[in-house]
Structure formats: C-alpha cells, structure tokens
Amino acid sequence: MGRLRRAAALATLGLLALAPAAQSAEDSASVRIESGLVAGVVSDGVARYKGIPYAAPPVGERRWRAPAPPTAWSGVRTFDDYGSSCPQAGPPRRVPAGSRAESTSEDCLTLNVWTPVERATRLPVMVWLHGGGNVNGTGSQTFYDGSAFARDGVVLVTLNYRLGILGFFAHPALGGKQGDCRTGNFGLLDQIAALRWVQRNIAAFGGDPSNVTLFGESAGAEDALILASSDAAKGLFGKVISESAGGLWARWPTLAQAQTQGAKVATALGSPGAGATAAQLRSLPIDRLAAVSDDDQIGPMLDGCVVQAPPAVALAHGARVPLIIGTNRDEDVAYFTAPARWVAARTATAGTRAYLYRFDYVWSLLASRRPSATHGSEIPFVFDYYDADLFDDTDRKIAAALHGCWIAFAQTGTPACPGVAAWPAYDPHDRRVMVFDAHPSVRAPADSDAQDLLEPPMSP
User: Fold this and answer.
1) Cα dihedral sign for 95, 99, 104, 107?
2) Pick the CATH number of 2-16+27-453 from 3.40.50.720, 1.25.60.10, 3.40.50.1820, 3.90.1030.10
3) pLDDT per residue over 276-317, tens digit each?
4) pTM higher than 0.90 for the full model?
5) Is 429 a catalytic residue?
C-alpha cells in the first residue's frame, strides 16, 4: 500500500517541468474577510490572493491538534506570494522559483484564491485538494494556477494541509479531537477547516458559498470522496470531481491500530514508545518527523468521527453528492480504474448523478516519450494552464473540452463539454464513459473491460 501511494505521488510530482513566467502585477485589490483586510495582485482581469492563513499555525503545543482559527490582524495585509509548503520528505517540486512554497514549515495552513475582477453575480466556487499520497505535494505547484478558472467565471481555491506523520498520526498520549471524538486524521481536519473558511469568507471574493465543488487528484481525489461520505464535512460542498483516486478499496486501520503503530514509530524516532508523553512527542525535531513515510503505515484511519467507515463501505451506496469520477488510461486497473467505475455505478444506483470519464490523451510535447496517459497527466488540461507556445491545436482543443466540462459541472451540476457531444450521467446497464482522447466522445466499454466486473475485496 505504501509503495503504491508513493509511486502515484511521485508520478504526479514529476509530471511536468515547464511553466510560463509569472505575470507582472498591474494593480492590487483589497477585500475584508473575518481576519482583516487582505490585498491581492490583479493582472489580466484576475485578482490573486496567495498565502492567506485559514487556521492558526499548528506548531509547538498545536502540533497534532485540530486546527484553530487564524489570528486576526489590523490594517491591510498583502498576500502576493504562496505560503510555505507543509513539511515532507525532500523539497517540494514544481513550485514557482523564488516563492515561499519552495521552503517547508509547520506554519503551512494557508490557501490561495483566484477570482475575476469583473463579476455581476455570485460565482461558483471550486476547491482543489492536491495529490501526493498524503505524504508530499503542495497546493502551490505551478500547474495548479487558477487563472483560467477565474477568467471563465469561477472562484478557484487551492490549499495546503498537513502531510505524513504531521497530518496522520495517532498515539495514546495525543488527544486530537473532532467534537467529542479522538482522531489522528489531522490532514483531513485541515481540509475541513479550509472548507469552513470558504463558507465564511468566499463571498468577499465574489464566490457563492452555496455552490462549492470539491475536486482533487490522486490522494486529493481520495480525500474528497472521504469527505463526501463524512458527517464532519456535511454541507460544506455540493459536488465532487475525483481524478484518479487511489486506495478506495484499501483496508484502513482503526484508531486503536493506528495508535499501536504510532507507538512503534515513536520508538523508532527516539521517544519511549507507547509511554511517550504528548510533550515528548511534540518536542521531536521536525526534520526527523518529515522523513517518516507512508511505508511506516502513516495515513488516514478509521476514527469514527471524520472517517466513520472504510471507503468501500462508506461508498457502498454511492457518493452523497453529484459526482464526476475517472482515471487515466495508463493507470493500474484494480487500484484506480475498477474502484472509479464501482463508485460511479453505486452512486447512479442510489439515484445521484455520476459522470464517468477516462483520460487517454497524451500532451503533444510528451508524445514521443509516453505511449499513453499516465497518472496526473490530465492536470494541465483541467487547469488550462500552459500557454500557446506549449500547446498545439489539438492540445488546446482537449484543454478547452476538459476544462470546460469541469467549469460547467461547477456552474450547473451537468458537465457540458465545449465542442463535444452531450455527456450523459453514468448508467450501470450500458456503462458508457466519456473518453478524452484526440476526439473526445462518449463510448461503451469493450467486452474485455474486466474492471467493470470487479468488486471491492471486502464486503460492504
């Protein structure tokens, strides 16, 4: 499980190396949120606010606790650079040169907002959860730039959340709580806190808090589906887009099992195992903690409050909200493709709209090196981020279709794709899927598509 998650994370992080230069600022804009006045940077009709704290720094005594509200400030604070990335093994990759995102710090619970300057009504909101196996990555990678979404009438939010052992860790001495429940799912609590921040503040940026779509890739897609089935996140968003979610059929540890494993990790880190105190654990040096990987079974757990049941059980009756879900052609069938089809079928059977896709297209710049679409290769097309020098005509057509589908789904709940025939909701009987290749269209699966017949390895 650890190796699979790591391979998926590294594939995503190593996806692209090219990015256009940052645009120069033409103006600044200030809005008032609950913490105070924030100023951003305006260019090309888009206002950008980068590095806004959505929670208090989880440092010192706040390490391994539920996120607390951010501290208010007086005057106007300018947010023109990303915040630090959360601690992880190795430096963050594919982040803007010279940005704070190149560095890591426990003080990392920040988010970024892109919004159009000109707007007549409240706009749909999309909140992005980055991938990286819940052990690495950042919401500030270059290809997560939200400018195209803002230009097309969406308020786009990306965020950082605690990773690895800082984000997913249980120990008998630690009492992280969600309500009356103990938990070690601090990274998920961060995501919930960011979504609550959106509910309280996004109207100041022109967004409609009643029309929020949560979307993500890889671990971010998995987390989005977890939150869609969690009572702790109920009402914070109304739609989900899941891109290549992994681990949906994994057997997750209970809180007690995670505490036992946490005691072993504590021993390996030099603390007295299960007998370590919270103070001893919180005094461990950050560089040693950041080096702990998911090979040590660090990850989401069944705590009974944030995660009430394994995904295969929680999603047995489908997602609770309208859903786009899919994978890329070159991804593993049992780990990625089969679970996506299963979730789409269960959601449709429960009476909620689900739309299934497969991304087959290979970016022209990489066509000579890649035979098919690998993990994470849809991301630049979703964000429609790269400029004309890096996209040929077919690339631009695919980007317009995929990005446009996501925009339409956020606006109306129906993925109307520019230049593509209608995409019907998934029907488990005809099993048609939207295929994004050089000629996107809805197609029936081949008889050899064995993933349509696979079920979770555990009974829901």
Assistant:
1) negative
2) 3.40.50.1820
3) 999 999 999 999 898 886 666 788 999 998 999 999 999 999
4) yes
5) no
